[in-house]
Amino acid sequence: MEKNNQKEASEAARTLAKLGASKGGKARAEALTPEQRKEIAREAITARWERVKERRDPEKLPMATHGSPDHPLRIGDVEIPCYVLEDGRRVVVQEHMLNAMGMTQTGNTRSGTLNRLHSFVVQNRLKPFISEDLATCTANPIQFRTTRGILAKGYEATLLADICEAVLAARDAKLLLKQQEHIAIQCDMLMRGFARVGIIALVDEATGYQEVRDRQALAEILDKFLRKEFAAWAKRFPDEFYQEIFRLRHWEWRGMKVNRPQIVAHYTKDLVYARLTPGILKELEIRNPLDEHGHRKAKHHQWLTDDIGHPRLAQHLYGVVGLMRAAEQWDEFMSMVDKAYPRRGDTLQLSLFKDDKSYNAE
Question: What is the pTM of this model?
Answer without folding.
Answer: 0.44
